[in-house]
Design a protein that fits this description.
2-enoyl-CoA Hydratase, Chain A, domain 1; single chain; alpha/beta; 264 residues; 50% helix; six-stranded mixed sheet; 9 strands; 14% strand; 11 helices; three-stranded mixed sheet
Length: 264
């Protein structure tokens, strides 16, 4: 008789919003081998599903994610050698994080609590972050003799500044929700009981927007982060030219002239 597979990641599609939820509340949503497998499939499906227009990544219980399941490393259930550690980062985490950053859909992190280690990398790879007073970001790799991973050495300095990133990496001290909001790392802080309602309201606003325009805005920002000012403007011109030929643009102009809402 087949054993039922635990659901370490749950998925719900709701009126154009794809909710992907870490689902190990008893382990503060620690990410192990099974979680990685289910999360990779969930993110891939959300990107490919045309009915999903906005993706939300969140956690069950009181944590967004406490990071990698270190017990698996110790017990040998997942990563057994230094090479295994590198291979999991390259072959499993990197494709997921790149998919979140580059998929042509807005991705929102609903940070219902702490985002630690690789869990923080997932939150920071999202386009928008909404947290609660209990949320914080922790990069405590130094405490176990490791350097940061999951792209956080690229993401955090760009979001919070190099000084903040270095202090977090060197000391292993958390960045509180209040400080993260002040620095612009978290877009807003809401009471825990209102988090999903606030995220749903924002997601619904984005669902109603022209999808190609959102995809173009995301591509523009990602391109600008690694290009010169001149190159960024040239890429914007390329995108505007391509989108000016789209049905979305034609409908948007007609709706503007007729003083009505554009059709989806």
């Amino acid at each position: 008789m087949a054993t039922e597979v635990e659901q370490h990641v749950s998925v719900e599609n709701e009126s154009g919003i794809g909710w992907i939820r870490f689902n190990r509340p008893e382990k503060m949503n620690a990410i192990g081998a099974l979680t990685r497998k289910q999360l990779a499939e969930s993110i891939k499906q959300a990107e490919r599903d045309d009915a999903v227009r906005v993706v939300v990544l969140t956690g069950s219980g009181r944590a967004f994610s406490s990071g990698a399941d270190v017990t698996e490393m110790v017990q040998g259930a997942g990563m057994r050698t230094p090479e295994d550690v590198g291979n999991v980062l390259r072959n499993e985490y990197m494709p997921m994080l790149m998919r979140l950053r580059t998929m042509p859909k807005p991705v929102i992190a609903a940070m219902n609590g702490p985002a630690v280690g690789i869990g923080a990398s997932f939150a920071l790879a999202c386009d928008i972050r909404i947290g609660t007073p209990e949320s914080y970001i922790l990069e405590a790799f130094v405490n176990i003799g490791l350097a940061p991973d999951g792209g956080v050495s690229w993401l955090l300095p760009r979001l919070a500044g190099t000084g903040v990133a270095y202090e977090m990496f060197f000391t292993g001290k958390p960045l509180s929700a209040a400080d993260a909001h002040r620095l612009g790392v978290i877009n807003r802080i809401v009471p825990a009981e209102r988090l999903e309602e606030e995220v749903r309201d924002l997601a619904n606003q984005l669902v109603a927007q022209p999808r190609q325009a959102l995809a173009g805005a995301k591509r523009s920002v990602n391109h600008a982060l690694v290009s010169s000012y001149e190159d960024a403007m040239e890429f914007e011109s390329y995108l505007q030219e391509a989108q000016a030929a789209s049905s979305e643009f034609a409908e948007g102009v007609q709706a503007f002239l007729a003083r009505r809402l554009a059709k989806k």
